[in-house]
Amino acid sequence: MHQIAIGIDLGGTQVRAGLIDKHGTIVARMEEPTEAQAGPERVLSQIHSLTERLLAATKSSVVVGIGVSTPGPIDTVSGIAKDIPTLSGFADFPLKAELQKRFAFPVSLENDGIAAAIGEWQFGAGRGLENLVYVTVSTGIGGGVVADGRVVRGRKGMAAHIGHMSVEPNGALCPCGNHGCFEAYGSGTAFTLRARTRAIGCEETTLGKNGSEIHARDVFVSARNGDALAKRLIDEEAEILGRGFTGLIHIFSPDIVVMGGGISHEFESLQPGIQAYIGQWAMPAFKDVKVVRAALGQNSGLVGSAALAFLAKRPEADTFALAAYN
Amino acid sequence: MHQIAIGIDLGGTQVRAGLIDKHGTIVARMEEPTEAQAGPERVLSQIHSLTERLLAATKSSVVVGIGVSTPGPIDTVSGIAKDIPTLSGFADFPLKAELQKRFAFPVSLENDGIAAAIGEWQFGAGRGLENLVYVTVSTGIGGGVVADGRVVRGRKGMAAHIGHMSVEPNGALCPCGNHGCFEAYGSGTAFTLRARTRAIGCEETTLGKNGSEIHARDVFVSARNGDALAKRLIDEEAEILGRGFTGLIHIFSPDIVVMGGGISHEFESLQPGIQAYIGQWAMPAFKDVKVVRAALGQNSGLVGSAALAFLAKRPEADTFALAAYN
């Protein structure tokens, strides 16, 4: 019987569940909106129910375990969530223990940026490499790092909160409460906000002129149509990301930087600017480091959390047959 | 016979050599000014001669190896120095191979920040910890990282060039050629330059009023005597370092941050401000991370490079008796 792992990508807006084989292929996948305000009991039920439905439709597989990616920072060593800003009621909540109660398979827990990095490392853009920095540029900025062929976890498994390095002293307010973080400048949210602000009264753009709210995607579409402001906004975003990535390249010395998250859908528009910035400002020994797009798209975290289950499984460990679950 | 390792801390101004036992104790130590302009042949002779003199004075020890810390970024995997800004002629120079030719013991090579981090981890302030960030604040800013009980080396062993994360877009010129790096603001050089600039025409200070050039030490002395500008300069330095360290804490999730380098001689003056900044701006899960002073002082790199030799030595590996050397 072939082995599969369950991957869960628990986010503030969607909870995704997948059955993933040891080649990283998604055998089955389901998602639904996270009942983020309903409290942990309800969210755990969602995870359990999604998993049950996936497994019910899958025959003759051996489940090696379940990996769960959660918004951080969460202490994945103790498994206790102190506070998850995007999910109500996860205050001092023993997430790992509560998950383990509900499943007969071993549960692995990972901060979401690290889980996505593992997905890209094991099955995506970083396959076969020893060193990579994964950066998700989305509502916020998060990440995960593989160095010397090993996942960097740090104290309590909370490493790679790379959105919260300071890039501007006393700068823009960041959702974390601090000012001037990389996230406060480089995130999709910050990019969209800049577009909305700068479009007001700007003669060189059609952005926002039809009265509807500007979204990140609009800026990229307008730029392709030659809109001057839109092109400038994209250049600026590339510079902000390029500057941040250059710092991360000096800090981690990765083989590549993998960019994921919503903004990476427009990777082609951003990549030349980002790469030019790195080429210009990285120290000579680091200039050749390439930025590549996440190969698994929005599934980096889902596949990565399943990969956790495979990685956690030792050859001598028991596997759990579906029979044990039903 | 007890085992010793040879540690070499090759710097742009001094080359230090030490015999270190497996407890991290410096059994013997010598140093001399680096003949930085004389080319690699001469510098290698200095290393060889210092080592020979140390070993000649030491009886009945088994040398397990020699560890060499060099200014970076240097590719410690290939062992080839592309360019060492502070040492002339090390262009495409096969440093490791040339060192190995001169010694009968196995040679280990490490970027200086990483070597110092290893010293503090194995024998200093980070003893017994799994996760630490070491930061040297001196002429420049460098560092090294231990995560999950392992040294973070990255591609070509060049990780942890933490002085070159951007902290101010298009900011002050950094010795690396980029603008706005952490080093360009937080280093001892930057601190001294700020003091000299700000003292000019300032009524609230005695700094520089006697006509002699201001050095970093003078600022700390003046601050202890109540000098208003000196106190402000130290507060600002603590804020710059605190902001940078907060970023590193989010990036690596260390158990502690270890501060070394020349400026750490005045650690007591800086620590309260640095720690207050971290307490204020780190995300809740990271607020409790402490900054401590390097325990080995200027010997972090020397002891760390020797520790490399012990770490590199496998139980099954041969040891090299002094007889083999002489």
UniProtKB/TrEMBL annotation, chains A, B:
Domain of life: Bacteria
A Pfam family assignment: ROK
Gene3D superfamilies documented for this protein: 3.30.420.40
SUPFAM superfamilies noted in UniProt: Actin-like ATPase domain
Family membership: Belongs to the ROK (NagC/XylR) family.
Stored PANTHER family: BIFUNCTIONAL UDP-N-ACETYLGLUCOSAMINE 2-EPIMERASE_N-ACETYLMANNOSAMINE KINASE, ROK (REPRESSOR, ORF, KINASE) FAMILY
Protein name according to UniProt: ROK family protein
Protein source organism: Rhizobium lentis
